[in-house]
Amino acid sequence: MPAPVVLAAFGALLVSLDASLNIALPAVAAAFGIGPAAVRWMIICYVATYALTALGAGILADRLGALRVFTAGLWLSAAVFAMYALTPSYAATLTCRVAQGVSGGLIYGTASALVTQSLPRERYGRGLGVMSLGLGVGVAAGPVIGGLLVDGFGWRAVFLYRAPLALALAVVAARFLGRSLRGGAGELRRLALVDIARLAVLRPAVLAFLATFAQFSVWLLIPFYLVSARAIGASLGGILFTLSPLGTALAAPLAGWAADRLGTRWPIVIGLGTETLGLVVISQLAPDSPLVAVVAGLVLVGFGVGVFQVPNLTEMMAAFPRSQQGAAGGLGFLGRALGSAVGVQVTAALFDARRAAGAGFMSAFESAFLGAALVAGLAALIALVPALVRGRGPRVAL
Q1: Residue 186 DSSP label
Q2: Which has the closest alpha carbon to 170: 82, 87, 45, 85?
Q3: 52 lies in a domain?
Q4: What radius of gyration do the chain's Cα atoms show?
Q5: Are the beta carbons of 160 and 85 closer than 8 angstroms?
Q6: Which of 18, 129, 343, 349 might form a disulfide with 216, Cβ 3.0–4.6 angstroms?
Q7: What is the pLDDT of residues 199-211, one digit of tens each?
Q8: Does residue 159 fall inside a structural domain?
Q9: What are the φ/ψ torsions at residue 260 (nearest 5 degrees)?
Q10: Residue 287 above 70 pLDDT?
Q11: How far is it, in rounded angstroms, from Cα 232 to Cα 236?
Q12: Is residue 153 in a domain?
């Protein structure tokens, strides 16, 4: 794979290591005296910020060059991760999360453009699969690393260990890849509403929103189920939690190959259907459920998301010309990020409403995951219609 693809994969890995935080959420809540619903702002402040930043970063990349914006995100990430050592309050920690969202958006919003601008159209799927593999590895490794760090050093360590990683990657990007891409996009074409208000763009954006909306019920509530309901330590809980993103990582290269060779339509449907099944399985868990049931639910959700994401992002990137690949990547991550923010908010609200009505933790847990399964099932139905009409995804010559 070309160097820019590898760089994009490592950048995605760095940002996705934020999964280290999820298993640390109970420790954060305990440190600041807040509950599971209030700690959701650790997620919302981050993902809402990088959702908006990713689109702006993509548009800026079309003007200045994807590598320049991407590298700026790496430098900012290194600085922000170090700042967590100094946060004296929950409010200050949330401020750092907003700054981290900006840095993450600069990286996420340009990573896809680094891939597609260095590959021919017929290899988009495989290139994006490699990038998504990096993302999936980070998300898979994050909970394990996070669990070990929380048990050994406290919750701040889940941020601090990434500062030197970001710094090292920024130095590599600036020194060795500074001349590998054009400084600017050259044939700049301003993004207009007519470019976005097309079915080829709106459909993958909506599907990304719904799939990620449903997935983030896992990120918010599974750590509390493992650590609180099942009384599993953070280290072991991190290992179990990583099964879902590990499934995503393993599915990404396969999904990229399928998108290039078989088309995008049916992999999208199959991925969403698998995610829905996994969420239903999780909704039926109890504190004494066999671990095999926990493993099955987490793996199904993760694998389904992995099968879905790469073909869906491939459709988004193929809907735009080469001069707008930054904007395309930004829009792709915008849909996912907004789904994350809204999904966490709605899931937390539903969970809290059930608790306020007198339901126990597991009853509220079941309601939240059944709601997430309905959302994922809706996405599968939306994807199924064009899949039945035309089995292969669009082939767009750039």
Answers
A1: S
A2: 82
A3: yes
A4: 20
A5: yes
A6: 343
A7: 778 888 899 999 9
A8: yes
A9: -75, -35
A10: yes
A11: 6
A12: yes
Question: Domain of 303: which CATH number?
Answer: 1.20.1250.20
Burial 125-152, CB ≥16 within 10 A → b, else e: bbbbbbbbbbbbbbbbbbbbbbbbbbbe
DSSP states of 323-342: GGHHHHHHHHHHHHHHHHHH
Find tokens 């590598």 and name the residue: 67
Helix 291-318, helix 90-116: angle, nearest 10: 50
CB 32 within 8 A of CB 325: no
How far is the CA of 139 from the CAs of 11, 135, 310, in angstroms?
A: 12, 6, 15
pLDDT at 181: 47
Q: The whole model's pTM is what?
A: 0.73
In whole angstroms, give the CA distance from residue 169 to residue 258. 30
pLDDT tens across 299-353, in order? 999 999 989 988 888 888 888 877 778 788 878 778 887 888 788 888 888 888 8
Q: What is the mean pLDDT of the chain?
A: 84
DSSP 38-102: GGGHHHHHHHHHHHHHHHHHHHHHHHH-HHHHHHHHHHHHHHHHHHGGG--SHHHHHHHHHHHHH
Q: How far apart are CA 254 and CA 237, in angstroms?
A: 28
**Cα gap 392→398, rounded to integer Å:** 18
91 class by beta-carbon count within 10 Å (0-12 exposed, 13-18 middle, 19+ buried): exposed
Instruction: Name every residue whose Cβ is closer than 8 Å to that of residue 149 and which is 6 or more positions away in sequence.
Output: 20, 24, 157, 158, 161
Looking at residue 391, its pLDDT comes to 47
Helix axes 265-283, 361-389, angle to 10 degrees: 160
Domain with 252 in it: 3-175+198-389
- CA–CA dist 196, 202 (Å, integer): 7
* Structure-token pair, residue 325: 């690949």
Q: Which of 306, 309, 314 shows the shortest CA–CA distance to 251?
A: 306
For the segment 110-142, what is each residue's pLDDT rounded down to a tens digit?
A: 888 888 888 887 788 888 888 888 888 887 888
| Most confident among 3-17, 49-63, 157-171, 257-271 (mean pLDDT) | 157-171
How sure is the predictor about 191, in pLDDT bands with cuts at 50, 70 and 90? low
**Structural domain includes residue 123:** yes
Q: How many domains does the chain have?
A: 1
pLDDT of residue 395: 45
